[in-house]
Amino acid sequence: MRFSTSGMSTIGILVVSMVAVSVPMRAQSLPATPHTPDLLGIYPGMPMNPARAQLQQRSSKYQVVSHTIAEHGFGLTIPDPTEQDQVDVYLTIAPNNPAVWMIRRTQTYGRGRPMAPSALLTALRQKYGKETLTADHGGGGLYLYWIFDQSGKLLSNADQGLTACSGNTFINNIVSGPGHGNTILDRCYASFYAVTAMLNGNAELLQAYTVELVNMPYAVKAATITMNANNAAAAKAKQDELKKANQNKPTF
Prior knowledge:
The chain has helices spanning 48-56, 117-128, 173-176, 183-191, 216-247; strands at residues 65-66, 73-78, 83-91, 100-109, 133-136, 142-147, 193-201, 206-215. The protein is an alpha+beta fold.
């Protein structure tokens, strides 16, 4: 079976435009989360500064840099032409205290340093155990899922519908708030705490892989807090504007 490179999309930083309002928001901390599973020592719920320091330990040559909008996260790219390694960490948004909700690692292989899919799977299974679900997307790649409950315990089986979930689709929602009314989304929001491995290559050699760790219920709670705070700030700004408008009486 062969997987085409067209199935691997380049992960960009999504920029969200918001109307700024000068209403202070009190920082909030979400409930503590388990420290395992982790990806490269970083776990969902980990505070921003320790997570950033942990990522920087991967390189003394290259620096961790903030995403386009700094409060949304940060990343580290090691641009080795034979084995490029990119890690991105995504953060909860104010008024939440900044904490990790997703970690994503992508490695792309050039000539001279190949990796077999079996070697990657062995490393993943040694760290996380036997995968809970699999989904073969044909030309889109092979996907494996390690699904955890909210205590961090690996589940031996889970709803196959969770293979439709991805933390990447929630990057915009972490600012705007979760959507509703979609059965698949509701399942993801309620229980998708998972490591997902996406393999792109053939049976003998990998061209690239991506591993993503996301705690979707945790992200949904944070996004809801952000959405409610932004809505309240926008409502107050509108009330203030109307009050000024009512006070602005002409003289005849």
